[in-house]
Amino acid sequence: MFRAASLASILLAGAAHAAEPAEFTTSPDITYATVGDVKLKLDLVTPKGPGPHPCIVCFHGGAWKAGNRKDLTKPAIFAPGGKEKNQEFSLLEMLARKGYAAASVSYRLAPEHKFPAQIEDAKTAVRFLRTNAKKYDLDAERFGALGFSSGGHLAALLGVTDSTAGFDGKLCPGVSSQVQVVIDYFGPAQLSLFAESPGVNESFMVPLLGKECLTDPKLYAKASPIEYVTKSAAPTLIIHGNLDFIVPIIHSERFYDKLKAAGVKTEFLVMKGKTHGWTGNATEVSAKALVKFLDENLKKPVKE
């Protein structure tokens, strides 16, 4: 969950196709909120074709205490967005080439900033982009959330919570933070499961939540996406390696089962033999599943 520099860089190679034009507009370092003395920024990539475009809001991993939005905005050693004529594409650029605007979002990090700061920032970023949809040529009614590991946790929370959860914060009031689709790459879904791993609990959960699970199980439940599942949750694609020992696949198995039981459109791609991230041919498999799910659940029906 927790080495953000590698997450986006190993999962999405091969998603771009040579027949598609590599045309997009990059708008880096947009300040979407200021909380105290912290300026929160996002990087936005949009297709150059006519909009408005559906928007995918992306969240880096890093155990809620590390990582950077720039992890998702540049090609790394494994070229997450694929290659064409020796040009490498980032995750955001790959999504733009598929017809989606994509934003990589900074959020406040633990241990300086405890939960729910991270999900408040995620929701504020969605509301900011929705508020400024015309400015950035976005479709305010078609938003998705995508995240890796701890970023997957935030994406999942966006998909299952509305304003009644109490995570909306005070910025951009009156604008919905709900998303219409979620892509969850091996995100923790039931945080109380980490109580069975004292080292992980102490190293990652306590910095985020401030307490041990056994001390305050209600707090761990409050931060767990699985606790908010209803039939109103967004369609969700979950992607997880079955040999992941950092975020065990039981998180995604239980989350998937609960979403399905609630009647939510949900797909679960198990990456067999993979751990917390993967390389090689598996990157193309997961990337194709990602794009297919977005196309099926976020693109407007073709008008006859």
Gist of the model:
By secondary structure, the chain is of the alpha/beta class.
What are the segments in which pLDDT stays under 50 over at least 5 consecutive residues? Answer: 2-21
Write down the CATH class: Alpha Beta
Strand order of the largest sheet: 1-2-6-3-7-8-9-10
Q: How many DSSP-defined strands?
A: 10
Task: Outline the structure in words.
This protein has 304 residues and is an alpha/beta fold. It has one domain: 3-Layer(aba) Sandwich (Rossmann fold), CATH 3.40.50.1820. The protein is built from nine helices and ten strands. It has helices at residues 4-11, 91-97, 117-131, 133-136, 150-160, 198-209, 217-222, 250-261, 281-297, and strands spanning 24-35, 38-47, 53-59, 83-84, 87-88, 101-105, 138-148, 181-185, 236-241, 266-271. The strands form two sheets. It has an eight-stranded mixed sheet with strand order 1-2-6-3-7-8-9-10, with helices on both faces. The longest helix is centred in the last third of the chain and has 17 residues, at 281-297.
Which structural traits does this protein have?
alpha/beta, 8-stranded mixed beta sheet, 304 residues, globular
